Amino acid sequence: MGPNIHADMSGRFLFMVAGEASGDLHGSRLALELKRLAPDCRLAGIGGPRMLAAGVDLLHSLEDFAFLGFSEVLRHLPFIFGVFGELDRLFRRDRPDAVILIDYPGFNIRLAKKLNKKKIPILYYISPQVWAWQPHRARLIAGLVDRLAVVLPFESEFYLRRTGLRPHFVGHPLLEVARSDISREEFCRRWGLSPDRPVIGLLPGSRTQEIEHLLPDMLAAVRRLQRETPSLQAAVGSVSTVPGDRYRELIGSSGVRAAIVTEASYDLMRHARVLLVASGTATLEAAIMGTPMVILYRMSLLSWLLARLMVRVPYIGLVNLVAGKKIVPELVQHQVTPSGIVRLARPLMREGSRRQTMLEDLSNIRKRLGRPGASRRTAQLAMDLIEERG
User: Fold this and answer.
1) For the chain, which domains are there?
2) What is the model's pTM?
3) Mean pLDDT of 92-121
């Protein structure tokens, strides 16, 4: 437990919970806005290095929650229940004025039930994607939380239709951060690439399991594309939550020479000709950056079989769900093969109608995501909630 959680400080006490890298990013931006609105407020929670740097005292870090899929969660149930016990003891000693839950539904919905019984005000920021996997849980969430801040344009209508609740559409927080100011020459110099040769960017996810499921096939596809286009360079976007040695092992065994671009995914997105992207937030980030891509998704067999029973949406890529149609090709589970990736990536490498159409569609996605300022609007929602609950 962090050293300042029980400090006797004036001001409001807010507890924030993010269990993934994207939640850590958005939580850090929100924390800065909360501090701007209420400089003496006290922030604690579960998150990652960005939230820690933004002034959130961490009870647990993201590394403690680095498991993926239904079967993997089952093995970690003792740890999860232990965290709930810690939180219960903490909130008995030091009751927060509000708790802000950020996505991460498997954990946060259960926590919301416990908070609701204690009558602790709840703001849910970045609504769980229940529209994809359990639409009936929308009514449960609406009954548990005091404020619901949604970041995708179709979510407001979904909740209104399902529950009668009108959430707050705050815009997407990625619009605040998805940008790159570095020149192509500087980017290539920094990562050992040639500015005169095209780059294919590989973004295999933010968890070790995702990377092990996807990166080998991505690299095998690159090897085939390089036979056709010898000038093609590869760059792998890495994250700090996965050991660097694991990237090096997978790249080394592939026989492909690839730069490892560490914690600079927006620079990679901007300067890549094409991206191979694990399904998730990165697909929206790539859309905002305007880079053509192929979306890939693979998990353990048991997790996949369970997901097939639950998922209720026609696409796996957020960018396609926001568009309301498949503007980016997707490869799912057994479809993720080197030949399948090559078949879809090849036409996007060249100038032509396929690439131009995707560029136009991606430009429209950015417009649909609202206006920048989601973190500021959500921080104000939190302060309004505290004032209302007194």
Assistant:
1) 13-173+373-389 (3.40.50.2000), 184-368 (3.40.50.2000)
2) 0.82
3) 94
